[in-house]
Design a protein that fits this description.
about 350 residues; alpha+beta; Immunoglobulin-like; 2 domains; seven-stranded mixed sheet; five-stranded antiparallel sheet; Methylase involved in ubiquinone/menaquinone biosynthesis; S-adenosyl-L-methionine
């Protein structure tokens, strides 16, 4: 599997609706580099490519310009896409995943996603706020990363390490097919209970499990150390593994053990996506200038933290050291995408993202 080179774009798919026999999409998009504008889109409807798209691009977007005043082309970033649906597609009025991929001179930009009338219930609002909000939007954002950068397929067996209330599971439920499956575990038992209640009988190929592991923030009573934890799955079970904000709360021995276990449960040639805080000359420079949202400067053995009082609140690793651990455990880094946490403008996501492939 080869990583897809993504042309850097930023945007959002605001609206996806079916009007009579047409799919109508509205949103905004702008390139992050160069002088070439977005000139076309590729669109899928329930994983089926649509043809004969009628795209209106470069529409006025004062609202986008107000939020992103330094983004080139933000004043003419809005678009509308119309596509005639087949009679069979017109009958699908609910639970449809839409993807819209902008093209710049034929190169694919960052995929934009939305759902048409999703019927899977959301978790209770207090739990959504507990994990920081943005339940569906962040789930859709990462689903796009999984598909484009991780080459996730609908039939894959997926493992979500640190699944919480199922933010990523929610959007994966609209992408994985009957041959695919999802497993998630988390150390915070109340979140696992909420996830199980949310998905219930609607997603029989989805399973959530509580991992009784010690963590000073989320599970302080457990006697089980993360540095000794064995994932509750057999060898070579999964095609795709991801950790969206786990290593940002773990120390070095725990990270190394999780890398061991991730490698054990992955099939050869399969992929893993990790969101983390990478410390390198660029990110450290932004931190020194006071531009970072995370002041990860306090050394703690083989990692750095934003606070020595509760180190697990935000932990980062020197990039060469983390990449060394990854390599020693039989992985190749096939994708590296720096995030905006330290003050970088308009990057892929908030955290840094690594895509690994098991050798």
């Amino acid at each position: 599997m080869k990583s897809i080179d993504i042309y850097p774009t930023k945007g959002y798919l605001d609206r996806a609706v079916i009007v009579k026999d047409e799919l109508v999409l509205q949103g905004w998009v702008a390139p992050l580099q160069g002088d070439c504008p977005v000139d076309q889109f590729q669109v899928t409807f329930a994983d089926q490519p649509l043809s004969n798209l009628n795209c209106t691009l470069g529409m006025p977007s004062e609202d986008v310009k107000k939020v992103y005043p330094d983004l080139k082309g933000a004043d003419k970033a809005r678009f509308e896409i119309r596509a005639t649906l087949t009679p069979e597609q017109q009958q699908q009025q609910q639970d449809v995943l839409i993807t819209a991929t902008p093209l710049v001179n034929g190169e694919a930009g960052t995929m934009l996603l939305n759902l048409i009338e999703p019927t899977l219930p959301l978790p209770p609002e207090e739990y959504i706020q507990y994990i920081g909000g943005g339940f569906t939007n962040i789930g859709l954002e990462f689903l796009g990363y999984f598909i484009q950068r991780g080459v996730l397929r609908p039939s894959d067996r997926v493992l979500d390490v640190g699944c919480g209330i199922g933010r990523m599971a929610y959007t994966l439920a609209y992408y994985l097919n009957a041959q695919g499956s999802y497993e998630g575990f988390d150390i915070h038992k109340p979140l696992i209970e909420v996830a199980a209640q949310t998905f219930g009988d609607r997603c029989r190929n989805f399973r959530f499990e509580h991992a009784d592991i010690y963590n000073p923030m989320y599970n302080p009573e457990s006697p089980v150390e993360a540095a000794e934890y064995r994932f509750p799955y057999p060898n070579e079970r999964f095609n795709f593994v991801f950790l969206t904000s786990v290593f940002t709360h773990m120390r070095a021995p725990e990270v190394r053990q999780y890398l061991n276990e991730i490698n054990r449960v992955m099939k050869p040639g399969s992929r893993c996506m990790i969101a983390c805080f990478l410390l390198n000359p660029e990110s450290e420079s932004y931190i020194r200038l006071g531009k970072s949202t995370q002041n990860i400067v306090h050394k703690l053995e083989e990692c750095f933290t934003s606070t020595l009082e509760v180190p697990e609140e935000a932990i980062g690793f020197k990039e060469p050291l983390l990449l060394e651990w990854i390599s020693k455990r039989g992985f190749s880094v096939v994708g590296k995408y720096y995030g905006g946490w330290c003050g970088r403008p308009y990057l892929t996501s908030y955290q840094d993202i690594l895509v690994l492939q098991k050798d």
